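Model: Ready when you are.
Researcher: Fold this.
Model:
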Amino acid sequence: MQHLKNQYQLKQLNIMLLAAFAVFALPQQASAENKAEVLETQTIEVVGTTPLPSIGTPINQVPSNVQTGSSKDISQQQSLDLSEYLDNNLGSVNTSNSVANPYQADVQFRGFTASPLLGTPQGLSVYMDGVRVNEAFGDIVNWDLIPANAIANINLIPGSNPLFGLNTLGGALAVHTKSGTEFPGFKATAYTGSWARRAFEFEAGGENKEKNIDYFVAGNIFKENGWREHSSSDVKQIFGKVGWQNDTSDLDLSLALADTFMEGTQAVPLSALNEPAKAYTWPDSIGNQLAMVALKGSHFLTDDKLVAGNVYYRKNRTKGFNSNAESLGPGNSTNISTATDQDGFGGALQFSLLGDLVGHKNQFTAGASADFGRTDFTSDSLQATVVGSKTVTDDPATSVGQVRLNAKNDYYGLYATDTFSFTNQWHMTLSGRYNVAKIKLSGTSSDPALIPVESDLSGNHRYSRFNPAIGFNYNPSKTIGFYGGYNEGMRAATPVELSCADENRPCALPNAFAADPNLEKVIAKTWEGGVRGKFSDAFGWSAGAYTTENDNDIQFIASNATGFGFFKNVGQTRRRGLELGLNGKFDALTLAANYGYVDATYQSDFVVGSPANSSADGAGQIQVTKGDRIPGIARQTLKLRAAYDVTPAWNVGTNIVMSAGQYARGDENNQDVNGRVPGYAVVNLDTHYSINQNWKLFGKINNVFDNQYATFGVLGNNIFNGLAAEQFRSPAAPRAAWVGVTYEFGTKKSASAVDAD
């Protein structure tokens, strides 16, 4: 009943939000810009270098290989969500999907991960309009809660940039949403196709010049049966923003709501890959209900002094169901239901001084942030039996394990950055941030089958550190520029990891916890350098190299009990690589290419349990040694994008994604007889045709050549084959096609059929 009540309340909020914006349904053309809100446009000449949006920094003064993306690109490619866009376009990015749901991808960048799955070591921070959206409980990122058609642009800032706070080990992703000033008009899209996918999207924006108010709203309804058995998706999202601005001030109030339910299905053993659509075992599902409100503002005290700030409240209720099939024996499996209530709130305040310093151009920013998380996690395990491929609960009234955990996160930060221009060509950036993370846990966990006594989960943990950065830019001309720098970042252990850190009492993540020994904070140190330039005004290129070393890296260590394990500091790991990029426009042809080489290795020796690894000893353990490659990370990726205007009304585009092979999880020593999960190449096509100024038709084909490949691998025991040890793979989706129609009016127009934003 409570779940139905929550759904009803969420639907009522949706209706209220739509009604509120309906009064502004007649869009007007945008007027003057406010220079403090430049990041709400599609402009990619400047990027945000601090978590809180402000005036931005020119790319040629940023000492790292920042990658960008725009609303136009996302719309043209009909990207389902942000993770799909990142995978198809940006360098050093690869995704893996262990649960066969399009909204549940793990995104790896330079060998660091932003994942929606609890227990995955996280190494990327994600911000939406200055609000950190890594969830409080496990630093996970729920891609299903970020509506793609509300995005104005993104900046992928690489390295251990300390300004973006905790969890920025390999990079930070800054998402800026649209405003009605920059995105006026109305646009509605409906499409359908493979796997009974049906979707409706809309957005509307505009400006009331007399009242200095702008408004924007975007919504999505998405349903799909999924290409594999029991992999359906039901996603509803809505985002709205109301802004007020004048020549010196800007104020934005935004509201984001989402109600999602996603089924997932597990990886398939190699012996069963001839039927990739079949579910290994089921059911497995997760659902999110999000409500987030945020207020951000900025004010120029004088022409060279800007103060900015934000406050937010974010509530996410997640319900999960996991089947844990151990064998075909009666009562040898479990079904686990979980509920995670997370409340996040906080804010930031920063001051920027834009004036000259000792006769040289200088931009100084200092700020403070406070982010608080309050989590109630409950888990109940029920004995089950595998019937066919479904785990059926034996007795719903009898629990074989439960968790009741409360977690409190208090994160504080003080930061500053200064970009000093020695000349118009030479720039130096100095940055630093002091982080304090306090985590308090309380609760109990019991698992009679493994731990006869109840475990006390109570504990207090504190992490703190000052993280510095320095970088230089040299731009001898407008056509070439060099950069180099060094930075440090940190990650505090999450409540999930701290609640499952006792090797003597392993847990079945994310369903049963045991104890909370302390884990050391992870420290990342990054060196980066490169060059970028332009062959012409419309054709640019870049080349760079980097190395990041992690101290006290945290990994999930499997135990001898199948499905159980614990988190542990495993010493040093290293990611080093090379990035090459090209992008340009030649009359009607647009081209982009991004190559990434990532060498991700362990730099310390440790022992890990992996009974399904063919090289495991009699105790089911393997020895990981320095130089072994980290599983799940493709060593090489290449992304190609081409779009051609056949006529002013007709555009055709393609994405080609190539990825090298990767080692499966459980093969941390790289010695399992099954070897690596093979690499792949996949081709996607899209086309748009403008019937007139208001109506547009489009089509999209993914995996044009119907290649069979996998993006994820793990070692395990096949319960349908006498518990034989096998490599399991998550097969990628086969060829699929969708067609749709868009109606729009009042939007900004250009000559291209796809530049309707």
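Researcher: Now this one.
Model:
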Amino acid sequence: MKKYISTNILCILSALFLTSCNDWLTETSPGVTELDDYFTNGQTAIQSVNAAYTPIAWDYNTTFINEWFIGDVVSDDALKGGQNISDMADAYDMENFKTNSNNGLLLDYYRAQYQGISRCNLVLQEVPPMATDTIMDIKLKDRLIGEAKFLRAMYYFRLVRIFGGVPKIDFVIMSNNQWKQPRASADDIYKFIIEDLLDAEKKLWVKSEYKAEDLGRATKGAAQAMLLKAYLYAHNYPEAEKWGATLVKQAEDDGEYSLCTNYKDNFALAGENGQESIFEIQYMSDPQSDYGGFGFSRGTFGVVLTRSRSSKLGGGWGFNKPTQDLYNEYETSDPRRDATILKPTDAEIETPEQEIYLGSRYVSKKYAMMEDGAGGTIFKLDHDSRGPINTKAIRYADALLMYAEACVENNNTTTAKWALEKVRERARGGNNAILPAFPNYKGYTDTKADLIKAIRHERRVELAMEGHRWFDLCRWGTVKKVMDAYKANETEEARKHMADFIEGKHELFPIPAEEVNLGSLTQNNGY
């Protein structure tokens, strides 16, 4: 499903939202499409759901809003990078715990999620009462409703992890007196997310039921994986283990998912929507891309943002630079390190003062440096700013490690070890000497405490530079300890920019000031 929605349908939906806010008008202006006139056939329902997918792919408006600016850069896995410290100042502030409520990255990110939520709400208001027809039978209708519920849950999940409690909007805003809503608690948002996912899981199809052109849509497995994830964040380990087991059964017994034989295939064009993919954000080549903001491109800025600044290595902008701390986390023989982190030679670096950022010359290889060209060369972009490669939001290895975590927290260490070993077995590629099974590495002993450490280590190295690390640290409650230790061991150049991590404040980011003022919202602690 590489192309989510046409420009025409976006324009129509925009017109519907704009005209619906003016309920003081007594007559409809000529040329305005009424909701009841628009939602009349199955094709309309499909297009409206397609529109609900689009904001999840947005990574630029007035600034760049890729989620890894938080998941990687704010954590101990990556430095901001770029040309210098002033390049992308909003990300610099977030990385160094100097964020204020006027941060442009946070404002655009926040608003993108609510754009997605509003589109989902429109689908969930208009599609359920629609009659079936030759295009949309009852099975497809249920699936479309399930897709909208899955997406709404994902948009809220992206918000609650960063901001905590946010306004819960589960209806279409039709008038000016409806748009100002109070913040719900984080617990209420997680409850709402889980309710949507439970209903979505019943309605969605398994991956193998989708036609090739529909790959990329939410599936039953995607809902199960998100339930596993949401319950982990809510620290409800019995429910997390249950949904993990359900997903693993679908993978192992029914063959819906499996680990790619070659780890690197996950980050190449050839691996898109493949056997390890549970849910991924769809992009496509778009040679007409520009800087028009939300919705103006079907490509991603992520590729050029994270490529080396050297033209010999792709000619990108050098953001999201792996840290020495991350590099050192890998076991020496772990092949995933060299698949994740590139250390350019002096001969490959054209401008050291731009390539080497606060002491780090490392470059993130995943997605940006994929070798899809002839003879294993770096993939050439059709447009100098946008890339076509999808972003895997959830892959099977991620789900296995979440399942292992849920199991060990429930004292089911046998299954936890099995899931952990599945991931390490793929990484070692048949060479048992390089990545031993637990507990025979990194000084571990065969205890629950060390098994938890091993699973957390594995999440870091398996999923490095994929935007997970910061959120893992926060939900584990280890973020203060980890970030203090990281700061103490970083380069002197990097340390002098870092403010202290304040426990009870920096786990969340501020609600954007514009949204606080518009909605009379309470601000997060300390901002």
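Researcher: Key takeaway?
Model: Residues 5-25 have pLDDT under 50 and may be disordered.
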